[in-house]
C-alpha cells in the first residue's frame, strides 16, 4: 500500500507543478497581449495625430486654392473660354462651319440686347449661398470632426 500512496503523492506533486507552470505561461501570455495592445494603441494614436495634421494641411491648401480661384478675375476665365469657342467648326468632312453660317465662325455669341461674353463678371450676389460659403477666406476657423 505504501507504493500506492507514493504514486498518489507523486501524481499530486506533478499536478501542482503542471498547474504552476500553466499559471506562469498564462500570466506571460496575458502580459504579452497587454503589451501588444499598448503598442497598437500607441501606434493608432500616432496615426490619428498624423492624419489630423495631414487633414489640417489639406484643408489649408484647399482653402488657399479656393481663395485663389475666387480671387482671380472671372473676366480672364470667360475670355479664355470665349476664345476657345471662336475656332472653326466642322461637322463632317463635307460640311464645315463656313457652309453653315457663311462666315467661317460659329453663330453669334451676342445678340443686340446682350453684352459680349468678355464683359461678364460674377458678383457675390449672383452665387448661391452654398457657393458663397467657399468664397470666405476664413474657412480654417470652422471646426471639423472625424
UniProtKB/TrEMBL annotation:
Residues 90-107 have a biased composition (Low complexity). One of its GO terms (molecular function) is DNA-binding transcription activator activity, RNA polymerase II-specific. Keywords: Nucleus. One of its GO terms (cellular component) is RNA polymerase II transcription regulator complex. SUPFAM superfamilies: Leucine zipper domain. Residues 1-47, 88-108 are annotated as: Disordered. Residues 1-21, 30-47 have a biased composition (Basic and acidic residues). CDD domains: bZIP_YAP. It is found in: Nucleus. This is Bgt-20030.
